[in-house]
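Let us work through a complete example step by step.
Step 1: write down the sequence.
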Amino acid sequence: MTRTIVALLIPAALLLGACSSESTTTEAASPASATIEATEASSADLPAVADLCKGLLQYANGAEARAQQSGETFDRTKALDDLFTQSAETPEWKDAPQERKDQMIQAYDAAKTGAC
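Step 2: predict the structure and record it as tokens.
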């Protein structure tokens, strides 16, 4: 079940990873903007697992900062699981080759532990 959830988040991670290598700010891209960027990227230009993981960590760090500002508790694993679930519903995820889905799963697993 965890593998299925992680597999669904691949499109967002693809997008977030692409954003993270270009951005120097501490704000993370939204899942929607990440999905748009992933759609625009060709398969040859897609980021590696480490870059995807860094993008996911950037997203999680931004979400954590927003939670702290509003006094809410933050659960990194839940935030990444929710992002993965949203991503799995996108056409980009559904159309991605299995190899790319496996890379995204690896990136999500690494981001959950912070070991990019």
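Step 3: interpret the result. The chain has seven helices and no strands.
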